[in-house]
């Protein structure tokens, strides 16, 4: 009985019920709610905060500890010149349109997407191939105005919408405006036309110090902090590359119209890795460990044809075939997959989508997003980009501080080349103010040009044209050209950067959605099947009676669990045991231990598993041993069933 299978899909996902649970149990809630709230700002309550802390703790183990990364904690407040140099001031922007009558602001690409998707859904409905949306979702969409009538579209239109949707991130402001006009896209809330798209920079501006003379920004990503500290990090790593830095911290984006709960907010926690690598060698020494990981990939060629069909392919094959640009990028894509699945994301609803060429950030050379399906559609939760040498180069150029690697070569590189040597005295005397121009000209000459002049000098004189057109005659008295040997024992280069960038709020939200379900026999109540690894509380201690004689046992069990490193809570509320378990099923608590009168007499305890509701019984110490292993993931529930006795509700009292 204890080892029963459960059907988690018996009831379709019910968003209203899910949201009510998150709200009731205070996973998170709108910030400043009693002041009316502010769109895109949320506070996390106790279970949400614990869940986030556990995701972060696993992220640290999976990436920082496993890969010996260098963790940093850089400031949020950033002086303006940093983002001027990085290109964010000019380009970190989205296109917005305004309702021509009400002035309501909408993000232009999201408007087009919502309207096209609604029309495509209406088309499917008209063709009788769409599943009817659930009632409460229906109402919500109607209120927001993105529900289109059930109208059949021509096959060409369906194809055209598909192609546009797949490439929407590529569109410029004027192209988005053109789309709105040609496809009659209006504000769905009011049916009014919208204005021409205007660019809106997403960074929050600030000013540092009392004078107002030092403008600053709240960072929209943590990455710049890694780049600006690059030379210190390199030194910390004994001058060796590759290495990675990692940072977990807050970022801020003044999103145009955040409407999708935790998926699009204005303040959020990011976890970012910057892996610095030799541009000439992007192999990864641990690639062999992930070579066979099979992923759902959606590459840019497939998207260009208007399709979203994924290819199941091992990361090894994807790199071999050049679908993923290099081993290091492939390594991180696979490690991101492993992390997300480990914490409870459903792998069947996880895909990696490659950015289209124009969609990539201005600095990136290849980019893959981990997209996770949820009730809002497919959402990017992790970006993984090859940022090339862009950031280090621009900051170094701007500040004059070298952000480079100096690599001592095992074998010095020996090379030969032609070198021009001037007799400075004769040069100055003969050419006066043109002397400097001539030297500069020769410094820019390539091997072929120098060789030609060398030949002419051997004949007596060489004719050279100065930049302004004047021709001058040179003799071997002024300049000689000879082949010289050079030995180079240090190689200098700017490393490339592979950047996996995680938005923790998005991950937390999809994790909650993927693990939410309702029991067949209790449709009204939800269960969150969070893996023990990330569940806010691991074990619930449930004393059946409030009598004082239970107190020493409760203390004993709590302290033994604490010593075993298992986070538990006591629920001694005055309600039925069924209600207490149901409440904790909603909080995602995977195990419960019950202390009853038999426990006091026999020192036995029952153990309940959340998903199956199966129960086992054993001595207090045996149960603590088993539940500790369950929480650590070293055994599973079927194994626990072999170690303890099945409990059927009747307990022998000796
Ligand atoms: N407004 C936001 N709210 C919550 N998370 C966000 C937001 N913007 C970005 N993120 C998270 O940060 C990660 C890295 O940011 P990145 O700059 O790649 O996102 P983006 O491409 O701008 O996202 P989008 O296209 O959805 O706006 C994203 O994968 C996402 O998880």
Explain what you see.
It is built from 24 helices and 29 strands. The model is unreliable at 132-144 (pLDDT under 50). The protein starts with 14 loop residues before the first helix and ends in an 8-residue tail after the last strand. By secondary structure, the protein is an alpha+beta fold. It is globular and about 115 Å long. The structure holds adenosine-5'-triphosphate. Adenosine-5'-triphosphate binds next to strand 11, strand 16, strand 21 and helix 19.
Jot down its keywords.
654 residues, alpha+beta, Herpes Virus-1, Signal recognition particle alu RNA binding heterodimer, srp9/1, nine-stranded mixed β-sheet, six-stranded mixed β-sheet, globular, binds adenosine-5'-triphosphate, Glycyl-tRNA synthetase
Topology:
Layout lengths: L14 H10 L3 E3 L11 E3 L1 H20 L4 E2 L5 E3 H7 L1 H4 L1 E6 L6 E3 H19 L8 H10 L10 H12 L6 H10 L15 E4 L3 E3 L7 E4 L4 H6 L1 H7 L6 E10 L14 E11 L9 H4 L3 E5 L1 H5 L6 E4 H6 L6 H16 L7 E5 L11 E9 L2 E12 L1 H10 L5 E18 L1 H8 L2 H11 L2 H12 L3 E4 L5 E4 L4 E15 L2 E8 H11 L1 E4 L2 E7 L10 E5 L7 H13 L4 E3 L6 H10 L4 E5 L1 H6 L1 E6 L5 E5 H13 L4 H7 L1 E2 L8
Parallel strand pairs: 3-10, 12-14, 24-25, 24-26
Antiparallel strand pairs: 1-2, 4-9, 5-6, 5-7, 8-9, 10-11, 11-21, 12-13, 14-15, 15-16, 16-21, 17-20, 18-19, 22-23, 26-27, 27-28, 28-29
The structure holds adenosine-5'-triphosphate.
Adenosine-5'-triphosphate binds next to β11, β16, β21 and α19.
Sum this structure up briefly.
This protein has four domains: 236 residues, BirA Bifunctional Protein, domain 2; 108 residues, 2-Layer Sandwich (Herpes Virus-1), CATH 3.30.40.230; 77 residues, Signal recognition particle alu RNA binding heterodimer, srp9/1; 110 residues, Anticodon-binding domain (Rossmann fold, 3-Layer(aba) Sandwich). Helices cover 36% and strands 26% of the residues. This is Glycyl-tRNA synthetase.
């Amino acid at each position: 009985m204890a080892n029963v299978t459960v059907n988690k899909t018996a009831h379709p996902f019910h968003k209203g019920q899910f949201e009510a649970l998150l709200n009731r149990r205070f996973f998170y809630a709108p910030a400043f709610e009693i002041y009316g709230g502010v769109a895109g700002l949320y506070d996390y309550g106790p279970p949400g905060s614990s869940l986030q802390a556990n995701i972060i703790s696993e992220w640290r183990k999976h990436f920082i500890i496993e890969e010996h990364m260098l963790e940093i904690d850089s400031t949020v407040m950033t002086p303006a010149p940093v983002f001027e140099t990085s290109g964010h001031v000019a380009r970190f922007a989205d296109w917005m349109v305004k309702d021509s009558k009400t002035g309501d602001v909408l993000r232009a690409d999201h408007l087009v997407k919502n309207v096209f998707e609604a029309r495509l859904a209406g088309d499917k409905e008209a063709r009788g191939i769409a599943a009817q949306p659930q009632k409460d979702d229906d109402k919500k969409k109607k209120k927001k105005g993105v529900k289109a009538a059930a109208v059949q579209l021509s096959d060409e239109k369906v194809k055209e919408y598909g192609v546009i949707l797949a490439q929407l991130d590529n569109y410029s402001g004027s192209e988005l405006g053109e789309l709105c006009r040609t496809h009659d896209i209006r504000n769905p809330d009011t049916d009014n036309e919208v204005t021409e798209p205007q660019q809106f920079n997403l960074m929050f501006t600030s000013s540092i110090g009392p004078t107002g003379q030092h403008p600053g920004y709240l960072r929209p990503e943590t990455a710049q902090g890694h780049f600006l500290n690059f030379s210190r990090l390199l030194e910390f790593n004994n001058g060796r590359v590759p290495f990675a830095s990692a940072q977990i911290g807050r970022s801020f984006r003044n999103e145009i119209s955040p409407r999708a709960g935790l998926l699009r907010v204005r303040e959020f926690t990011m976890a970012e890795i910057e892996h610095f690598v030799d541009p000439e060698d992007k192999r990864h020494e641990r690639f062999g460990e992930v070579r066979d990981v099979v992923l759902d990939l959606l590459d840019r060629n497939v998207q260009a044809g208007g399709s979203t069909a994924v290819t199941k392919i091992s990361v090894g094959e994807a790199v071999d075939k050049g679908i993923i640009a290099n081993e290091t990028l492939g390594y991180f894509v696979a490690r991101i997959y492993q992390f997300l699945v480990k914490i409870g994301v459903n792998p069947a609803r996880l895909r990696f989508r490659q950015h289209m060429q124009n969609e990539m950030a201005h600095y990136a050379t290849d980019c893959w997003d981990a997209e996770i399906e949820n009730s809002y559609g497919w959402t990017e939760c992790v970006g993984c980009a090859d940022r090339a040498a862009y950031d280090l180069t621009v900051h170094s150029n701007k500040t004059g501080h070298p952000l480079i690697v100096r690599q001592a070569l095992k074998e010095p590189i020996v090379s030969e080349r032609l070198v021009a040597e001037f007799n400075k005295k004769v040069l100055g005397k003969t050419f006066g103010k043109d002397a400097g121009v001539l030297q500069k000209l020769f410094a820019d000459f390539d091997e072929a040009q120098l060789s030609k002049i060398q030949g002419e000098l051997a004949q007596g004189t060489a004719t050279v044209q100065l930049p302004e057109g004047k021709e001058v005659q040179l003799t071997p008295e002024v300049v000689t050209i000879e082949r010289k040997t050079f030995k180079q024992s240090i190689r200098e280069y700017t490393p490339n950067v592979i950047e996996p960038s995680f938005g923790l709020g998005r991950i937390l939200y999809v994790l909650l959605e993927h693990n939410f379900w309702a029991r067949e026999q209790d449709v009204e109540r939800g269960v969150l099947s969070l893996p023990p690894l990330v569940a806010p509380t691991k074990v619930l201690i449930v004393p059946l009676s409030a009598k004082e004689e239970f107190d020493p046992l409760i203390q004993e069990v709590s302290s033994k669990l604490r010593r075993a490193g298992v986070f538990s809570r006591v629920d001694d509320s005055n309600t039925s045991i069924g209600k207490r378990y149901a409440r904790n099923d909603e909080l995602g608590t995977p195990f419960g231990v019950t202390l009853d009168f038999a426990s006091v007499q026999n020192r036995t305890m029952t153990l309940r598993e959340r998903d199956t509701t199966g129960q086992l019984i054993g001595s207090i110490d045996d149960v603590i041993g088993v539940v500790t292993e369950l929480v650590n993931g070293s055994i599973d529930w079927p194994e626990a069933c072999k170690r303890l006795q099945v409990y059927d509700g009747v307990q022998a009292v000796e």
